[in-house]
Amino acid sequence: MKHLIRNAFVAVLSVGFAGCEWSGGGDSNSWNDSGSIANFNGSYRGSGSGGYLVSQYSTASSGSPGSTTTISGETIGTGDGSSTSFGGTLLHSPVVSGSLQITAAGGYSFSDAGSGILNGSVSGTAGSVSYPSGGWSIDLAGNTIAVGATITASYTVTNSGSSSSGVTPGSTDPIYAFNVQQSGNKIKIIDNNGSVYEGSLGDMKTTGNLGSGSQGSTFVNGDQVIASFSAAGRSKAGMHVNMTGNFQGTVQGVSTVTTKSGSSTITTTSMALSDRRIIGTWIEDGGMTGDISGVSASAVNVTSSSTSTNSI
Questions:
Q1: Of 90-99, 176-185, 207-216, the least confident
Q2: d(C-alpha 157, C-alpha 134), whole Å
Q3: DSSP notation for the chain
Q4: What is the DSSP letter of 95?
Q5: Does the model's pTM come out above 0.85?
Q6: Which of 27, 68, 217, 311 has its CA at 20 to 30 Å from residue 139's CA atom?
Q7: What are the tens digits of pLDDT across the range 22-60?
Q8: Taking 90 as the threshold, does the pLDDT of residue 167 lie above it?
Q9: Beta bridge partners of 303
Q10: How confident is the prediction for the chain on average, in pLDDT?
């Protein structure tokens, strides 16, 4: 099957921070200068439009929410003289059930029956459509289309009124929540539909600068801790998904205790990490993308210990 898929280009916002930089490591409830400096375990709820944690990016974003727009004569593919089946993703979504009409050179046409099935005008031909994502496919029953001959589509889309349609890409099972399980720099994300995505944390950074004459870090209330992440898995809809983005949190309640043991001085810093968030991009095989935006209602406590040897 020849896949004619619209490319999706994702812009990633890079954020720079002054201060120290670490790689992930350590256990999930503590950190030090050579390990993990944050704990992002817990539940995250959607903070996007309509409470969705993952919301589909939609090019059909103009107009009032709930209104519709008709797309006519969109070129969705071309013949190559040998392929007998074609597929891809429409430029706009979500598609209104029953509205899609596909026409191919040679007298082939396909009508949307309203249940995701496309009925072909020629015996044996058939197709399908995914209304949320705009994905489509047609089978010409062994026939071909001349080289360069076009395949066009006409259909109606529902306007969202914003760039987020409020539907998880490629799925009719919305994602409202993530449960994040972190162990060192390894993470597991489980969505409210039971799908599992596994990956790791990358660089962890803080806005806190090195303390003068200290081997450790000086944290200040209000500092931001940010950890990049990537994870992959398969959604309930069966789509392979890659996620990339950042976890972030705000430092509060910093306290430091210094003790001595022989020739060593041990400095222990305790703090709370609040206002924890996950922000990123959802990328499906086939080119569909979405926005990830979630907030954790709980704060967590973390501690850091550094040891220095006194001169004798």
A1: 207-216
A2: 9
A3: -EEE--------------S-EEE--S-TT---TTS------EEEEE-SGGG-SEEEB-S---SSTT-EEEEEEEEEEE--SS-SEEEEE-SS-SBPTT--EEEETTTEEEEE-SSSEEEESSTT-EEEE-TTT-EEEEE-TT----TT-EEEEEEEEE--SSSB-SS-TT-SS-B-EEEEEEETTEEEEEETTS-EEEEEEEEEEESPPBPTT-SSB---TT-EEEEEEEEEEE-TTS-EEEEEEEEEEEEEEEEEEEEEETTEEEEEEEEEEEEEEEEEEEEETTS-EEEEEEE-S--EEEEEEEEEEPP-
A4: B
A5: no
A6: 68
A7: 333 333 333 333 335 678 999 999 876 567 888 765 443
A8: no
A9: 270
A10: 76
Distance, in Å, from the CA atom of 264 to the CA atom of 28, rounded to the nearest integer, reads 27
Residue 94, preceding peptide bond in cis (omega within 30° of 0): yes
Residue predicted with more confidence, 173 or 265: 265
**Distance between first and last Cα of the chain:** 76
Which residues are paired to 43 by β-bridges?
179
- Report pLDDT digits (tens) over 206-254: 765 433 333 445 677 888 888 899 999 998 878 889 999 999 988 888 8
Tokens 């954020």 correspond to: 15
Per-position b or e across 71-87, b if 16+ CB within 10 A of its CB: beeeebbbbeeebebbb
Q: Which two tokens stand for residue 257?
A: 């205790």
Contact yes or no for 93/60 (Cβ under 8 A): yes
Condensed to tens digits (0 to 9), the pLDDT of residues 277-300 reads 999 888 888 677 888 889 998 888
Specify the pairing of strand 300-309 against strand 126-129: unpaired
Structure tokens at 228: 């990049």
Hey, where are the domains in the chain? 2-57+166-309, 68-158
